[in-house]
Design brief:
The structure is a homodimer of 201-residue chains.
Chain A (H helix, E strand, L loop, with lengths): L5 H11 L6 H13 L2 H17 L1 E2 L6 E2 L13 E8 L2 H10 L4 E5 L17 H10 L4 E4 L5 H14 L5 E4 L15 H9 L7
Parallel strand pairs in A: 3-4, 3-5, 5-6
Antiparallel strand pairs in A: 1-2
Helix pairs in contact in A: 1-2
C-alpha cells in the first residue's frame, strides 16, 4: 500500500501488528482517528500505555488488578472458603459474566503440558497450596479445559490437595443448554447419559 | 462485561470506540497487548498519538503529509502539468496503488452536497483554481464519485475552470474488468454500449 506519510504508515503498521487486523482495517482505523481531535487520540494512546505499564497482578490469585490485591479477593462479601482454579484471565471473565459464582479464583497461568515445556513449576501452584493451607479454604473447584493437558493438571493438583483435607470438585460436563442433541459429540453425549441426574420439577 | 481492573476497562473502551470493533474484539486486542513488553506497547501508543499530533496537510494539494509539501507534490519526477481532483485521501491511495498515474493530485475534501450543507466554499476549490491559474497546469482530471453530488461538483468545477483554458477530463466509465456482464447495473451497461470503443488487437 502507498502512504504519502511516514506517520500514517507507522500508525497503520502499529494497528496491523494486532491479531486479526490487516492493513486495510488498520488504515480505516487510522483515518478514523485522524478525524478525531488531538485530545481524544491522546486519551486513546494513554489508556493503552497506562494499561500495560500500571497493571499489577493480584498477590493472592494472580488475576490482573489495579492494586496489590484484586477487587475480587478484597471483596468481603464474597465466599472466601471456595476457590475456583482457572487457566487464564478470560476464564475468570467468563465465569464472572455468569454472575453465579460468589467465591474467589486462583489463576494458574496455564496447564501442565510437557509437549510445550510447561511443567508444574511454571504455574502458580505453590501459591494455590499456600492459600488452601493457610486461609481456611474448604472447597477447590477445578475449572480447567476438558483437554488432556487440563485433565493432567487436575490429576496433579488433586494429588497435592488431598493431603490438605480440602473438598475438590470439577465443573459438571454434559450437553449444552440450547444445543441440539444430534450435534453433541459422542463423548459428551455418552458422559451425559452415564452421569444422568434425577428429573427436577 | 466484568473487568476486575479499571485500567483494562479503559483500554477496552478505547479500542471499542473505533469503528467495527466491539467489546469482545477490544478485549482480545487488550489481552494481546498485555502479553507484549512495555516498550512495544509504548511504541504502539506513541505511533498513534504522533500520527494525530504531527500530521500536516500539504499546502499545495491538501493531502496528508509529514512536511509542508507532500511527497507527491515535491516529487520532481512527476508530471506537474496534470492534476487529478479527488474527494478524499482514500481516493489518492487507491489511484497511487494502481501505479498508473504520474501527475499530481488535488484533494477537495468532499463534494458539493446541499442536503448535507456542503457548499463550494467548504471545499478546497479556491486553491485548485489558484494552482491551475499559476502553476502551468495543462489538464485537470475529475476523479470524483459517480453520484449526483459528484456530478454536481464536476459541473461546478468545469464552469470555473473553462475560463482558465485548461483541458478537463473525467474517468472513463463502463463495465469492470473481471466483472460478469449480467451483474453490471443497467446504467453502467447502457453507458458502456453508448460509449463503445474500437476493438484493439
Amino acid at each position: 500500500m502507498h502512504f504519502s506519510s511516514k506517520l500514517i504508515e507507522d500508525a497503520v503498521n502499529a494497528f496491523a501488528s494486532l491479531p486479526g487486523i490487516g492493513k486495510k482495517t488498520a488504515l480505516r482505523l487510522v483515518l478514523h482517528l485522524l478525524k478525531q481531535n488531538t485530545e481524544a487520540v491522546e486519551g486513546f494512546g494513554k489508556a493503552i500505555v497506562a494499561m500495560r505499564k500500571d497493571i499489577k497482578f493480584c498477590s493472592h490469585c494472580h488475576n490482573i488488578s489495579d492494586h496489590d490485591v484484586c477487587a475480587i479477593c478484597s471483596n468481603k462479601a464474597r465466599d472466601h472458603e471456595t476457590l475456583c482454579v482457572v487457566e487464564s484471565l478470560r476464564d475468570i471473565m467468563a465465569i464472572e459474566n455468569t454472575g453465579q459464582f460468589r467465591g474467589l479464583y486462583h489463576l494458574l497461568g496455564g496447564v501442565i503440558s510437557p509437549l510445550e515445556g510447561v511443567g508444574p513449576d511454571d504455574l502458580n501452584i505453590e501459591t494455590l497450596l499456600g492459600r488452601v493451607d493457610k486461609t481456611g479454604v474448604k472447597e477447590v473447584i477445578m475449572a480447567l479445559s476438558p483437554t488432556i493437558e487440563g485433565d493432567t493438571t487436575v490429576f496433579y493438583l488433586n494429588k497435592k490437595l488431598v493431603p490438605l483435607g480440602v473438598k475438590i470438585s470439577t465443573l459438571a460436563r454434559g450437553i449444552s443448554f440450547g444445543g441440539e442433541l444430534e450435534y453433541a459429540d459422542e463423548l459428551t453425549l455418552a458422559r451425559s447419559i452415564a452421569a444422568r441426574v434425577p428429573y427436577e420439577k
